[in-house]
Design the sequence.
């Protein structure tokens, strides 16, 4: 028994392994030039880029959260035909390849986009341009707000049925309902969500360059990319990546401090009527939010359907092989993400039980901070680390699932960790009194609660990996060609229409995964 | 008098049809197998479920057209009764004033009520810092302070250990003598309330199969079925 | 189901790996994605080379020229590449500095390049001029010179690539330097109001142009040939600029670390031979480094013929790029 307790918890090992991987790859990058770490100073150029990155990411985050939360509340209050499909659609924008998103924004808001056409048909003959902040913000809100809505809605669904009945019985007004039932959920979710969205926007760079309109509209990631791919100055890339990591960590600390997490009282989902459903003013507000949000998101999402025209042209052996490769990599990545999330979350839980909240917060932080690491730099660093031991031809096979899995980890963690905490609050004492620990506890106590969030995060991780074009850019190949890789390959051969079709296939695959996971996570116990 | 007459509710896999009378001021304990429709009966009285047909009235007032908030009913659940972000006194105050904007007199009432349920000095505690029994006391205080004459308790003590359960039942009995309320409570362990309840109803398969004094139910011809259904659990 | 798929895929990967090891010798050629893609010349070249070498040619791809050099840098001595096809002049100095390339030993006389080729490490396999492409149905009077484009405040709107992340983007930065010299930064400030945006890569910029966001896009003189041949559309033209056009030359090199130097050398010679060169125009949409005997396809004969090829040497690029970029950043961010 004593020996057993001395064995390290798998979560601790995972946390250490991740930290070591990241640190190791930084060191490998920084010292590749014969061991002398590159000297590096922050000049006015970097200051400007940093300032812009922070401002655009901050604005994007605020707008995405505002729209996402409004949509979530409106969707929570309303039941309508096709709601299921809308919920699944919410999960797909985030996994769109960035170039698909850029083209979607232009198809709707561009110089000859739908909006310009519609205005023209109404007799308006001015011109407008979305390049600059409008374009960047539209794209970022389009990509992130639906995801925010989805996660928030999941959280709202977890409010205990008893509390809804209590609200009905006590006669809560809509404002009181918001204050006592919705706001505690939002407060619990907002810090993490804001952190995720901020990071995604802070790092976004193909979108920022394509829609920004000028070289001053660039993020730190551009400088990292430049150092890695144009200057081949790996040392500088490592230092820049470190700066990015530091800023993002600081941002997450601030958010975490600003939104202290209230204790959770999650329960199983229950279909309960909300007392504020009947409020007439809210009906109007919700209708406005849903229609407004729909008008913003639907055209952008629908523009992706343009790929439909060429969908039969692209179905060939190449595509099927790329699809299979994508699916295999996505599966492996999802396994990595879910495994890591599970072990980290259970480590965080152990810390919570033993009342060391600080340490628990460290585990909560780790997945999110991974998002701050530039995938390109991480890939390069990891490659340098494994180079002595692994045949470079095999490196892609190892790195692709690993990096994609790490990239999906923060999202998987968001699904899994709260549920694991819930089972602890409910059955923790019982399990302890029965002497259940480790795998036994996982199997008997946690598994029934975790099954559905695990499936949901597995599907999301797969979808994210499906749309990813970070690592594959470096390690693609004749035999290692994923769907996004095929998309860029077609673009490079002037085949814009076929690229659109491939983009559509990626989005459809993500939609199916989201739908399946939505079904699974809504199924009755 | 709480009057329930042929109240019918149907779901694809379950049908209920309740008839029951509880005189004003009585404590009625509802017993029966789980899945038999005990909780549904309470939810119907509270207004969370609406019967398709039948009569539901309290003190001569038809309850059916009323929303849950408009009914003279307060309810305590088995679990999740309290909002975790509010203190004990705030949770109690919700029964008085959902906006939580209290006058000085109301604040004093809340403190009194916490004293009455044996939680003096717990005002500022949050649910996470209290035991299960203490949380149920807070919930009960909230039901009482609302001044609603009909109180529903849905297996309020089933999470507690036997000694504590007994204390809680006695607390309920004591408080209802201080201010006349009618109480309908579902309970897993009839022996806890056998000597306190005025009335006992045996609910199974969505119907009130029998109703009478605890002695009638626990020792009459139905006794074997009641015991069997409870032992089944 | 998914697990089975994964297993199948992994075993396929292993199986092909083992098959390679046992059968004929394998020549591993690194190139960029679209070269070996469905519409690229990769398949044709593989067939034609394998018909003569009794070996197997395997394409290994990275996204673009920058990724290729980055990957070589990472792999260093352990690289599996025997030959690399698809570097460009602006990366040539960096690539050479990696020290993984061997002298090519091929005959580079009589090339149909606008410049004389003397490099002994890399051989050029195709080339083109940078040019602004426009839709002649929408833009009737394109500028006749770079100066006209830059200095006319009411000129057409253009979409460019970011020189920090893209090869044609860097190419245009150098073109501006060639034409304006030290005054290039002022020229950038003048042009800036009519630049829609600087995209990450060529694909985004060309996509933006095709979606109608700009009147002209930075691309190659050979781009219109694609639209004529593949789409039967002749409205897309490249604007001829009187100052001359910046030259873009794509390069191939054999590695020093190859286990099959003979085979690699054979391939390097093959690169400048008829079977390879004839696949360039309508496969890679670039001018062949050695014009095939049958001449150029029709669509390529009508292309813009610049009066002068503008070019910095790889060493000049390596030395000045940082300064050029900083100047551009300051001017274009104003």
Sequence:
């Amino acid at each position: 028994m004593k020996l057993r307790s001395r064995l390290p918890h798998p979560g601790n090992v995972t946390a250490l392994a991740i930290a070591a991987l990241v640190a190791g790859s930084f060191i490998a990058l920084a010292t590749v030039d014969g061991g002398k770490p590159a000297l590096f100073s922050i000049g006015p150029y970097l200051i400007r880029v940093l300032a812009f990155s922070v401002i655009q990411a901050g604005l994007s985050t605020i707008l995405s959260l505002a729209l996402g939360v409004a949509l979530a509340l409106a969707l929570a209050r309303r039941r309508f035909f096709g709601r299921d499909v809308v919920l699944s659609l919410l999960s797909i924008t985030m996994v769109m390849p960035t170039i698909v998103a850029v083209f979607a924004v232009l198809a709707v808001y561009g110089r000859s986009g739908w909006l310009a056409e519609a205005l023209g048909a109404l007799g308006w003959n001015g011109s407008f341009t979305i390049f600059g902040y409008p374009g960047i913000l539209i794209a970022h809100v389009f990509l992130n707000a639906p995801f925010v809505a989805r996660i928030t809605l999941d959280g709202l669904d977890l409010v205990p049925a008893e509390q809804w009945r209590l609200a009905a019985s006590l006669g809560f007004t809509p404002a009181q309902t918001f204050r006592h039932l919705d706001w505690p959920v939002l407060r619990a979710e907002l810090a993490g969500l804001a952190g995720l969205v901020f990071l995604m926007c802070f790092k976004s760079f193909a979108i920022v360059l394509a829609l920004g309109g000028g070289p001053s509209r660039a993020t730190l990631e551009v400088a990292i990319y430049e150092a890695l791919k144009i200057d081949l100055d790996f040392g500088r890339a490592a230092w820049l990546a470190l700066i990015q990591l530091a800023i993002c960590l600081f941002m997450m600390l601030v958010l975490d401090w600003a939104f202290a997490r209230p204790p959770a009282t999650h329960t199983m989902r229950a279909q309960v009527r909300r007392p504020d459903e009947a409020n007439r003013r809210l009906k109007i507000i919700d209708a406005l939010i849903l229609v407004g949000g729909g008008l913003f998101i639907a055209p952008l999402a629908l523009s992706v359907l343009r790929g439909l025209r060429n969908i039969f042209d692209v179905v060939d052996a190449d595509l099927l092989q790329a699809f299979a490769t994508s699916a295999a990599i996505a599966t492996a990545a999802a396994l990595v993400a879910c495994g890591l999330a599970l072990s980290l979350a259970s480590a965080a839980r152990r810390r919570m039980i033993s009342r060391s909240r600080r340490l628990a917060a460290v585990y909560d932080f780790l997945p999110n901070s991974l998002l701050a690491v530039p995938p390109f730099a991480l890939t390069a660093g990891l490659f340098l680390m494994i180079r002595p031991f692994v045949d470079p031809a095999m490196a892609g096979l190892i790195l692709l699932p690993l990096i994609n899995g790490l990239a999906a980890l923060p999202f998987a963690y968001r699904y899994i960790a709260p549920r694991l905490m819930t089972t602890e609050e409910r059955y923790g004492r019982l399990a302890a009194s029965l002497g259940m620990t480790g795998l036994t506890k996982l199997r008997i106590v946690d598994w029934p609660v975790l099954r559905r969030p695990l499936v949901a995060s597995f599907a999301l991780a797969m979808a994210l990996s499906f749309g990813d074009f970070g690592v594959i850019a470096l390690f693609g190949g004749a035999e290692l060609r994923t769907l996004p890789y095929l998309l860029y390959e077609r673009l490079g051969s002037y085949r814009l229409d076929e690229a659109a079709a491939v983009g559509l296939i990626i989005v459809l695959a993500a939609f199916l995964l989201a739908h399946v996971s939505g079904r699974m996570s809504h199924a009755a116990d | 008098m709480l009057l329930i007459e042929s109240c019918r509710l149907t779901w694809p896999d379950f049908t209920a049809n309740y008839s029951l009378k509880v005189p004003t001021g009585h404590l009625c304990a509802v017993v029966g197998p789980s899945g038999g429709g005990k909780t549904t009966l309470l939810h119907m009285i509270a207004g969370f479920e609406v019967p398709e047909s039948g009569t539901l009235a309290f003190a001569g007032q038809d309850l059916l057209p009323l929303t849950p908030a408009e009914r003279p009913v307060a309810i305590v659940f088995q679990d999740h009764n309290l909002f975790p972000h509010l203190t004990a006194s705030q949770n109690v105050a919700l029964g008085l004033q959902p906006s939580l904007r209290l006058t000085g007199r109301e604040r004093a009432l809340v403190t009194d009520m916490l004293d009455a349920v044996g939680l003096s000095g717990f005002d500022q505690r949050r649910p996470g810092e209290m035991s299960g029994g203490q949380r149920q006391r807070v919930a009960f205080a909230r039901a009482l302070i609302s001044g609603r004459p009909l109180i529903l308790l849905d297996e309020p003590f089933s999470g507690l250990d036997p000694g504590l359960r007994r204390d809680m039942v006695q607390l309920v009995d004591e408080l209802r003598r201080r201010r006349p309320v009618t109480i309908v409570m579902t309970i897993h362990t009839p022996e806890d309330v056998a000597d306190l309840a005025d009335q006992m109803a045996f609910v199974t398969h969505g119907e009130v199969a029998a109703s009478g004094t605890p002695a009638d139910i626990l020792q009459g011809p139905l006794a074997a079925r009641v015991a069997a259904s409870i032992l089944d659990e | 189901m998914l697990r089975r798929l994964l297993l199948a895929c992994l075993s396929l990967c292993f199986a092909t790996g083992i098959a390679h090891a046992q059968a004929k010798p394998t020549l591993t050629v690194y190139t960029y994605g679209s070269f070996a893609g469905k519409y690229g010349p990769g398949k044709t070249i593989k067939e034609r080379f394998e018909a003569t070498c009794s070996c197997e040619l395997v394409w290994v791809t990275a996204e673009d020229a920058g990724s290729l050099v980055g990957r070589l840098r990472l792999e260093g001595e352990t690289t599996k590449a025997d030959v690399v096809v698809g570097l460009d002049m602006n990366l040539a100095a960096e690539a050479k500095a990696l020290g993984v390339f061997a002298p090519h030993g091929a005959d580079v006389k009589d090339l149909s390049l606008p410049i004389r080729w003397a490099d002994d490490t890399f051989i050029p396999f195709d080339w083109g001029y940078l040019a602004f492409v426009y839709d002649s149905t929408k833009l009737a009077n394109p500028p006749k010179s770079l100066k006209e484009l830059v200095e006319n405040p009411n000129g057409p709107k253009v979409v460019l690539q970011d020189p920090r992340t893209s090869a044609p983007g860097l190419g245009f930065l150098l073109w501006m330097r060639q034409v304006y010299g030290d005054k290039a930064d002022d020229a950038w400030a003048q042009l800036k109001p009519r630049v829609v945006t600087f995209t990450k890569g060529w694909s985004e910029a060309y996509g933006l142009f095709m979606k109608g966001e700009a009147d002209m896009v930075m691309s190659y003189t050979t781009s219109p040939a694609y639209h004529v041949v593949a789409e039967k559309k002749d409205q897309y033209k490249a604007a001829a600029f009187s100052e001359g056009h910046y030259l873009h030359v794509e390069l191939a090199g054999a590695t020093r670390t190859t286990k099959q130097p003979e085979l690699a050398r054979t391939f390097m010679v093959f690169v400048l031979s008829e079977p390879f060169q004839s696949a360039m125009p309508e496969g890679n949409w670039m001018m062949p480094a050695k014009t095939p005997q049958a001449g150029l396809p029709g669509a390529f004969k009508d292309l813009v013929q610049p009066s002068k090829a503008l070019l910095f040497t790889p060493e000049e690029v390596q030395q000045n790029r940082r300064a050029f970029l900083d100047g551009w950043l300051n001017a274009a961010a104003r």
Notes: Chain A touches chain B at residues 160-163, 165-166, 168-173, 176, 180-181, 184, 262-265, 267, 275 (CB under 8 Å). Chain A has 22 helices and no strands. Residues 37 and 269 of chain A are 53 Å apart (CA to CA). Residues 2-35+73-522 of chain A form a domain with the MetI-like fold fold (CATH 1.10.3720.10).
